[in-house]
Amino acid sequence: MVIRPCGAALGAFVDGVSLATLNAEVFKVLYKAFLQYRVLFFRDQSLSPEQHLALGKRFGELELAHPFFPHLAQHDQVVIIETSLGNPPGESFWHTDMTWQAIPPKCSILHAQYVPPVGGDTLWCDMAAVFADLSNEEQNHLRTLNTIHALHAFEGSRYDAVDANGQSRVAQKSQAYPSIVRPMVTRHPETGDEVLFINEQFTRSVQGWEDAQSQALLDRLFAIARQDRFHVRLKWQAGTVAIWDNRVTQHFAVTDYGDQPRRLHRVTVQGLPD
């Protein structure tokens, strides 16, 4: 097994490993690398849905079926992320998965089934590095703030639909997921790193602030996080697997491939209470 760092801030390729047949010793090494590099990439991996689920369970309990995303018929914990002819991807945003949940996921495991020959890369951002780059004064200020996260971003998206009464399916289901208030700065439960835990898709506002003031602060922080020096970029190939630490990263899907066929399967691991 060879681990090759591939980004200045985060990310590493892992060679010489079959994720379908990991033993405990190899997984221990991989888990240490997962914490260190935030996101790991593996080429040429053959994973059945059952093997994909089993790999996810090595990291912890799995999330239940996503409320909106499609999934495999026989395995509702395996999400399908798919583009097909006439069905291009929707607008993309930097995001951390499911921060609208009371406890966001620990990590996600994405396995490419087939991808376009060009385009469709994914970027990840190290939000601990973003926080560490801020001045001590601003860090102290941000530690005092809370933010509101909500599921609103899916309304009107490709995952939404309108019923016979003109009601949004997402809006109706969102009632089961009320807005969540969480600290703007969190601490990674395993590494101890402080993390600027906000994202463009699900962070709606700074709690208790006027809308304009709140949006101005968030926009400025989002702009810092969009700087390349905090990123790593993956060019997908069929069989590529990415495993990322959702507690310390954001990611962004580049939608520059039109409606060329593209399909990936995702398994997501539950986070743990503080």
Automatic annotation (TrEMBL):
GO biological process: sulfur compound metabolic process
InterPro entries, per the entry: AtsK-like, TauD-like_sf, TauD/TfdA-like
Keywords in alphabetical order: Dioxygenase, Iron, Metal-binding, Oxidoreductase
One cellular component (GO) term of this entry: cytoplasm
Top-level taxon of the source organism: Bacteria
Residue span, TauD/TfdA-like domain: 4-268
GO molecular function: metal ion binding; taurine dioxygenase activity
Similarity annotation: Belongs to the TfdA dioxygenase family.
The protein's name: Taurine dioxygenase
